[in-house]
Amino acid sequence: MPVRDVVFPAGRQALYEKNRYSPAIRSNGFLFVSGQVGSREDGSPEPDLKAQVRLAFANLNAILKEAGCTFDDVIDVTAFIVDPHTHFETIWPVVHELWGDAPYPTLTGIGVTWLYGFQFEIKVIAKLPESAAA
After folding, report:
1. H helix or E strand, kind and range, residue 81
2. Lower CB count within 10 Å: N or C terminus of the chain?
3. Which residues pair with 126 in a beta bridge?
4. Tell me: the pLDDT tens digits for 36-56?
5. Where are the domains of the chain?
6. Beta strand 24-27 with 5-7: parallel, antiparallel or unpaired?
7. Residue 53 near residue 46, CB atoms below 8 Å
8. Topology adopted by domain 5-127
């Protein structure tokens, strides 16, 4: 069985070990990133919804950076929103601030009822730059 090529962002390894999952795995030229939420260093949710979305992107970008990527390398996004009917209009303008310019990645949005105390989660697949794919 091949060993997983795990990417850990600085300062958050204990959180992933506690919850028993990898933040991201490099495989065949791609980076598969676990869903990222707006968690503080201790894993607790950021209470302000807009700040929570910004923190989710900051956590995502820390993983991308550790793997040698940026959000421009992201090709597929899955966004989870608790009660999107209520929260979409607050969340989506913040996402647009952080999304970057066209062409945009593909997107699947999913409304959910529970995210472990969070309101937003973002999961991505990125194409590793040639220098980071080895």
Report:
1. strand 74-82
2. N
3. 31, 74
4. 999 988 888 999 999 999 999
5. 5-127
6. antiparallel
7. no
8. 60s Ribosomal Protein L30; Chain: A; (3.30.1330)
